Amino acid sequence: MSDDGETRIRFAEEADAGVIARIHMTSRSATMPYLPPQKRNHEQVTRWVQDVLLKHCRTWVAVRDAEIVGYAALDGDLLEHLYLRPDVRRTGIGTLLLDEVRRHSRGGVSLHVFQQNTEARAFYERHGFTVLDTNDGDRNMENLPDMTLRWTPRLP
């Protein structure tokens, strides 16, 4: 029986690594064409997901109709990654993942985003993130100008 497009969020498992890697690679190439071509193949990115991402970050996946369609990875209070399969963008799944991250980050969440990534910047700004700083790119491996955004929960 289909769940009619209902999406649930759960913790990522090692068995999810290959799908997470595919989402990571396809999302980056679809949404950030200004990035240099990827040098790592699917197998190498899958190993990175297993050996780095899942071991050092709290990682969640979004599951719709039994398929993983997105993921978010949190390292402390730093949102390291939030990627969706390109065909499910603008369907609320990114918001579900971000809400899960924020539920686990009572003190707030920071993230880095490329200045050129105007769609991601607009998404985070709609969700209450504000710009903390901008950078010329010397702190990321792509050497592209980026910015730090921060969300701090409102006190009751």
Automatic annotation (TrEMBL):
It is an enzyme of class 2 (transferase). Its EC number is 2.3.-.-. Keywords: Acyltransferase, Transferase. One of its GO terms (molecular function) is acyltransferase activity. Residues 7-156 form the N-acetyltransferase domain. InterPro entries: Acyl_CoA_acyltransferase (IPR016181), GNAT_dom (IPR000182). Gene3D superfamilies: 3.40.630.30. The keyword Transferase applies. The keyword Chloroplast does not apply. It comes from the Bacteria. This is GNAT family N-acetyltransferase. It comes from Hamadaea flava. The lineage of its organism: Bacteria, Bacillati, Actinomycetota, Actinomycetes, Micromonosporales.
